[in-house]
Automatic annotation (TrEMBL):
Family according to the record: Belongs to the TRAFAC class myosin-kinesin ATPase superfamily. Kinesin family.
Binding site for ATP: 246-253
Lineage: Eukaryota, Metazoa, Chordata, Craniata, Vertebrata
Protein name: Kinesin-like protein
Keywords, in A-Z order: ATP-binding, Coiled coil, Cytoplasm, Cytoskeleton, Microtubule, Motor protein, Nucleotide-binding
Amino acid sequence: MDQVSSHGERCHQLEEQLRRSEDLTSGLQAKISSYEVEIEKLKEHLMQEIHQLEAQKEEAIKEASECSEQHMDTLRDQLIGVQSRLVSLQPVLKNMKTNYNSLRSQVRNFSQFYEASIQEARRQICNAVTNVSEANKDLLQKYQREVQLRKRYHNQLVELKGNIRVLCRVRPHKDLTDQKSSQLSAIITDVNDDTRTSITYKGKEKSFELDKVFLPEATQEEVFMEIEPVVTSCINGYNVCIFAYGQTGSGKTYTMEGTADNPGMNLQSLRALYQEMEARKGLWSYAVTLSMVEIYNEVIRDLLSRDPQDKLDIKLNPDGSGQLHVPGLTSMEVKSFRHIKKLLALGRRNRATFCTNMNEHSSRSHALLTITITGREFSSGAITTGKLNLVDLAGSERVCKSGAEGERLKEAQNINKSLLALGEVIQALRAKQSHIPFRNSKLTYLLQDSLGKGNKTVMMVQVSPLEENIGETVCSLNFAQRVCKVELGPASRKIDTATAKAEI
Ligand SMILES: Nc1ncnc2c1ncn2[C@@H]1O[C@H](COP(=O)(O)OP(=O)(O)OP(=O)(O)O)[C@@H](O)[C@H]1O
């Protein structure tokens, strides 16, 4: 019984399941049908889309083919245009080619011609240069011969005259042109005779004959040319003294020191000496020393010393030679012409340090520049020693005229003492006295080995052109005239070997 009921229940359950499945199936079928409808719709829509796209494609292809055809036509037209232009350009191109070829050959021809011309010109220039340098060499040799001859004749002349030369330089008028300066000068100079000058003094005309008179317009170079052979003879072993003499303001410092633009005898002498030494390079060797002193109130001051206030004295040389020397005097070895310039500047600075007014001070003191040159000739071994003294003397005015008193009177007396001593030395030399009073002043003491017999002396007498200075000018020229009459005799060369060659 129980088994039957359980089967019945099971059947019931299965029936129920079947019913539910049938419900589910019919639901699904409905869904499938609706999907199928939907799919059909979509299919239809898709087909429509495809047709549309195909139509668009067709149209696009059609459009594209139409468009490229138009473009092709334009391009074709352009191509035809280019082609016809090319055809028309062809003769031009051909022409250009021909021209280019002809130009190229012209350029080639021209460069060949140019090269040949250059070579020819070069050859001609070389020939011309050779000829010119030959001619130059010849001229140079002639010139050098002339210079040597001039030097020799000058030396002979100087020796005949006794190795003392007196030159006069007339200072220009201040602030006047050179031409007016000459016309206005109270000193009469003769352009045709440069050895004479005359002055009308106290109603009488006084004439002076000297070795040379320089007009106010004379340049520093012209003055130096006159003394150059004497200066450079120092290299050959001669002692030389060049001194400027004259009243205050007559141009002594201008002549000796000069200015930066117009260097005076000092710098020009040193330059000429260095040029001459340079020209003898390889044949001679030289050592140059320089000292600078000032004599003020009979006191010697060393201008190259570290302490220029130091006072120096003159003593007999302890070597028994009888020569004088100044113990402690700075003697600088000079390395070059440039070095000399520095030393001169140092000397000037030192001189200026112990004076309040340089112009006044320089008027009352003597400035001495001494250059000693020792040379050695390589071939003979000869040794020469020459000394050049360049002296800017103190103003030479007379005490009575300056009306000096006190310190000024002392200065004036000391200046007078040394200038008087210089005059006495000159007088003694002129009279050929056996005793020459060099020791009467510091100045003559210092110049002893350059001023006396056997040496070369140049006195540069400076005069003012002004009427108001005529008295002083006459005094200076009288002194110059006396100096002119001194006969120092032939100069002697300081040379240290028997095998030494004679001066050229
Ligand atoms: N030849 C010249 N050319 C141009 N100026 C000159 C000449 N000579 C002299 N002077 C000028 O004249 C003035 C006086 O000259 P300088 O100082 O040389 O005279 P000085 O005789 O040395 O005088 P001091 O005895 O006072 O030293 C300076 O101004 C100088 O420049």
